[in-house]
Design goal:
Layout (H helix, E strand, L loop, with lengths): L2 H18 L7 E6 L2 E6 H10 L4 H7 L4 H12 L1 E2 L3 H8 L2 H11 L9 H12 L6 E2 H5 L6 E5 H10 L2 H13 L25 E9 L4 E9 L9 E5 L10 H9 L3 E5 L6 H9 L8 H20 L14 E6 L1 H9 L4 E2 L1 H6 L9 H7 L8 E2 L6 E7 L19 E6 L7 H10 L5 E6 L10 H5 L20 H16 L5 H4 L5 H7 L6 E4 L4 H12 L2
Helix pairs in contact: 1-7, 2-4, 5-7, 6-7, 10-22, 11-19, 13-14, 17-22
């Protein structure tokens, strides 16, 4: 019998025991810190969470914690995460989920070696609480009359949660003043954030790749001013997203005479994600290859469309393409642009200590299931790339991004918890040797660049160390405006208007477009001393 099956059976038994024995849940918590030990009634812990007042029985113990540690405990007790129980169960039942449970089990030592099984049962049942999974709902569902917590180990694990994000905060605070341009003035020829004069139309297609058994819905944004003298702009959405998640950018480009194409990746879109919650895997390793193949397939189909009688005939420049991708789509953009997937180190890194990974890093670990270590899925019809909050730290290895030979713009958001800027964008930027730009948007989050209608309808925005706290919709209007400007300017670099738009790809314009809420910085190259600092930050992770 496999370990996975054994774990499922054992977990089911634990759950049955809890259901049949409602009193079999933690009534007492035993806190251990080095040689000290303190028993606490769960009711006192709930009172602490609700009032923030340390009960008399805990005051002597609390004095031994620093103010930061006390605040960390109180905030952690207050946090609840609404999460679908089926989703949680599936995540915990993956190989990565089991590794994370093993990491967490070091916090709750048991003599019966059933730590991971007990944790899984408590998490699933704790998620049934009205406000979702919290430390208290977890404790009250824990299959034992007492729960032992090693506080020293708990602080160590908690400080390792999403390490890359916290490293990014410290790094951006340290270096952002050095990136501000000095003594400049702007004389802008026009406002690139304003829509063009052309009326935008949308054509919807359902493309069927019979060879790969993939059905790919596609929206084509265009206008009567579209011409083959301008490149096609093709978009790649993020994991569990849809093809309209950056619709405002597609419409903006189309209003200026470009043809914007937004395909949907069937193996990692919102529909696939929702179906996977009801049964099946959330994402297959092959999706890291299939997404880039989706892009190439759509370009093949556009070549055919360009030769048939329709409003777009003769206007589709399929050999002159710019790709724009967000999140996992940003990784797709980089691989389609020529980046080589290098998985040797990824497969080693994803064997342990997964608790320290961001969600973006965890997603990349899925690629460890691919049989080979190196893959090239680039398309030479793509002549320029924009990768927004891309995943890239693990899947491209040490030199995979150096294979990119086309102009590439990387966008990073300093408050992005899902794909932290330092590890996912800033360090990878240094490995690209082609003409390149790096945009850092201070204060922006992972969803700040998405279409307002889409971002607002996302899942719960509960602020946790690994996700949530997103700034989107009307709050990030300035961010989307800047995205309009630089996306249009990058596209124009592939036309006769390149020089006219070049000013919008400068550090000065980024500074000009900044607001108090969202300072923006743009660099073409990272100075040697800052590159050393970046590597030092990463190595200290």
């Amino acid at each position: 019998m496999s370990i996975k099956k054994l774990l499922r059976i054992a977990t089911a038994m634990a759950v049955i025991c809890i259901i049949n024995e409602p009193t079999l849940a933690a009534q007492k918590i035993v806190l251990r810190y080095a040689s000290l030990s303190q028993s606490i009634d769960v009711k006192e812990l709930r009172n602490l969470a609700e009032t923030g007042t340390i009960p008399e029985s805990l005051k002597s113990y609390a004095k031994r914690l620093s103010p930061q540690q006390r605040n960390l405990v109180i905030e952690a007790l207050k946090t609840s995460i609404p999460i679908n129980i089926v989703t949680l169960s599936k995540l915990l039942n993956t190989r990565m989920g089991m590794i994370i449970l093993s990491d967490l089990a070091t916090i709750t030592p048991r003599e019966d070696y059933a730590g991971t099984i007990a944790l899984r049962a408590a998490m699933i049942l704790g998620a049934r609480a009205p406000k979702g999974l919290s430390i208290l709902s977890f404790i009250e569902a824990y299959p034992s009359d007492r729960l032992i917590i090693d506080l020293k180990q708990a602080f160590k694990v908690m400080s390792n949660l999403n390490t890359s994000f916290w490293q990014t905060q410290r790094f951006m605070s340290a270096i952002s003043p050095q990136l501000a341009p000095q003594n400049f003035s702007m004389n802008l020829p026009f406002d690139p954030t304003q829509s063009g004069s052309a009326v935008v139309q949308v054509r919807q297609l359902i493309l069927k790749d019979t060879q790969r058994q993939r059905v790919i819905p596609v929206d084509i944004y265009y206008s009567t001013s579209a011409t083959a003298a301008k490149p096609i702009i093709i978009f790649s959405h993020g994991f569990s997203s849809v093809r309209t998640d950056m619709r405002y950018l597609a419409e903006h480009l189309a209003s200026h005479g470009y043809i914007a194409v937004t395909p949907e990746h069937p193996g990692s879109n919102a529909e696939h994600y929702n179906k996977a919650l009801a049964g099946g895997s959330l994402i297959k390793p092959e999706e890291f290859l299939e997404r880039a193949r989706d892009i190439s397939f759509v370009l093949d189909e556009l070549e055919k469309l360009n030769k048939t009688v329709n409003p777009l005939q003769g206007k589709l420049a399929t050999n002159n393409v710019m790709i724009v991708g967000h999140s996992m789509g940003g990784g797709t953009a980089l691989s389609s642009a020529g980046g080589e997937l290098q998985l040797e180190k990824l497969k080693q890194r994803c064997q342990s200590n997964l608790i320290s990974l961001s969600l973006g890093e965890g997603l990349q670990c899925v690629a460890s299931g691919l049989p080979e270590n190196r893959y090239q899925v680039g398309d030479n019809r793509i002549k320029s790339a924009i990768a927004i909050n891309p995943i890239s730290s693990l899947i491209f290895g040490e030199t995979g991004l150096s294979k990119i030979q086309i102009p590439t713009l990387i966008v990073a958001a300093s408050a992005d918890k899902i794909t932290p800027a330092l590890s996912e964008q800033i360090l990878p930027f240094t490995k690209i040797s082609a003409p390149k730009w790096l945009v850092a948007m201070l204060g922006a989050t992972h969803l700040s660049i998405q279409d307002p209608w889409f971002a607002i309808n996302r899942e719960d925005n509960t602020n946790t160390p690994i996700r949530g706290g997103e700034i989107y919709g009307e709050q990030s209007f300035e961010i989307r405006n800047y995205m309009k400007a630089i996306t249009l300017a990058m596209a124009a670099q592939m036309t006769a208007d390149a020089e006219k738009y070049a000013i919008f790809l400068t550090p000065e314009y980024a500074y000009y477009a900044s607001t108090e809420a969202f300072p923006i910085r743009l660099v073409r190259h990272i100075p040697a001393e800052l590159e050393i600092a970046i590597k030092n930050f990463i190595q200290s992770k």
